[in-house]
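Ticket reopened. Same input as before:
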Amino acid sequence: MFKKFSSEEVSAQNQVKASVQRKIRQSIAEEYPGLEPVLDDLLPKKAPLIVAKCQNHLNLVLVNNVPLFFNIRDGPYMPTLRLLHQYPNIMKKLQVDRGAIKFVLSGANIMCPGLTSPGGALDDEVEAETPVAIMAEGKQHALAIGFTKMSAKDIRNINKGIGVDNMHYLNDGLWKHHLNF
Amino acid sequence: MPPAGPKDPPSLSENHGIIPVTVLYCPVCSLPAEYCEFGPDFEKCKPWLINNAPQLYPDLLKDANEKEAEKVSEKLQSAGISSAGADGAVSSAQSGETSSKQEEVKRLPGGKIKKKDKHEVVIEKVVRNRRKCITVVKGLELFGVKLSDASKKLGKKFATGASVVKGPTEKEQIDVQGDVAYDIVDFITETWPDVPEAAIFFIEDGKKVPAA
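Engineering reply: fixed in the latest deploy. New output:
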């Protein structure tokens, strides 16, 4: 989704009012309870929270010119990969096998067989339409951030088609331009 | 959540137990070190990986050692084979070594080596009127900084005039009105992280290392 991304894609950057800031904070706290203790450090109440609006109804939440979260069309907020690397345990993890890594790294969505094959791992509790971290077989750090299209049980049973949408992956536009705001 | 009492060790009470993980990112491909093999140019990452993250790619260490052993045996052979014309062989082996080093040094068309690539930023204070002075910044272009951009930012930051001026042929410099020499150092390193603090020099009858 961030395949092509640069500062030209950003249509507007606004500092948000305190009420909006509180809402964003609340929805992030709900979505990622694991982040609560450090939420005050990441999204301080007093610090100016900037939302950058980009093409395709994409909003980026910036603190100190560093993007921390993004969301599409008022969907759930998802952390950027850099943030996820720092706090790996805030999201549920799904693992893909080794052969899928290079496809995911060029932006491909994650197909069910990649998750159900021997190299992959599925967390059975994961429902559809949730943000998840995509890990790679044999690697310690997250490879991408995805949005599940099917629940883990469906993925296992049906085993065909797109399982998880690839929202943000290593070395995509957002990863490369994370300082250019 | 249990309240942080006075007996808690400082680290726990600060973050309530969650500490961010520091990730080793490869400077070449900007990916976490273990993903370098999927990066755009694994060959370039290899030398850095061998030094900083050998445990991730143990095969690399073996390969590097093997290559070195091959090179050394080649040199020995070439020196041994033409031992009759020993001088010629030794010099060719030596030139072989130095030419591999020279690959890294830039070569101007014509064969001369471009020596004067001092990656330095020089900051100088010039007195204009008795109490007014100008801070001159030279050498930012060597770090890939666009001078017109830089002068605008400098002017905005210090709320003074800043302009790009042509020094004695070729070298352009930025003039910032007022005495901002010390503040400039911080600003440069913050806005352009490519510029290391050690590369900035003040001129005080000779050169001085910065960061005060």
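The radius of gyration of chain A is 16 Å. DSSP finds seven helices and ten strands in chain A. Please confirm and we'll close it.
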